[in-house]
Amino acid sequence: MSRARYTRGGAASPASGGTFDSDLSFLSRWSGRRGLLARVMLAYILIVEGFGKIAGYAGVAEYMQAHGVDGRLLPLVILTELGGGLLVLFGLKTRWAAIALFGFCLLTALFFHSGADQAIQLQKNVAMAGGFLALALLGAGAWSLDAWRACAL
Questions:
Q1: 3-state secondary structure (DSSP) of residue 81
Q2: Beta carbons within 8 Å of 11's beta carbon, 6+ residues apart
Q3: Do 102 and 110 touch, CB atoms closer than 8 A?
């Protein structure tokens, strides 16, 4: 029988001595910086793709049409990718942006990456959706405009 203490959710308490999870307690000292790094990594692809869609607007609209999505939705796609990516990057209204981007990633996977030749793209979008779901649940962290605004109140 394990000697680890458990919290309400069934997870081991960080203060539990000798448990496997207690070896990772040092991460809490850097959680603000690492939260920022996680947000940068999630936002990066969206910001780059948003600018790319602006640069190749006509081609992207045709691609959307070819997959049964009205090309007139492209401004909304750009706003979601670029605007949502920037909100996540700066940690402003992070949970709302993360919920929107969670749905966006799943819809993108469904509409554009469900073919047999798109397995890696499908997996990438599902993984990104999982990252945004985690961000929506956990929030932006200490190094964010959300945290700064909360302290200013």
A1: helix
A2: 21
A3: no
Q: What is the CA radius of gyration of the chain?
A: 19
Measured CA to CA, the distance from residue 153 to residue 148 in angstroms comes to 9
Q: What is the tens place of the pLDDT at every residue in 35-87?
A: 899 999 999 999 999 999 999 999 999 999 999 999 999 999 999 999 999 99
Q: What does pTM read for this prediction?
A: 0.81
Q: Which amino acid, residue 110?
A: L
Strand, helix or coil for residue 97: helix
Q: Distance between CA 67 and CA 100 in Å, rounded?
A: 21
**CA 143 – CA 135 distance, rounded (Å):** 14
Residue with tokens 């869609």: 53
Q: How far apart are CA 120 and CA 113, in angstroms?
A: 9
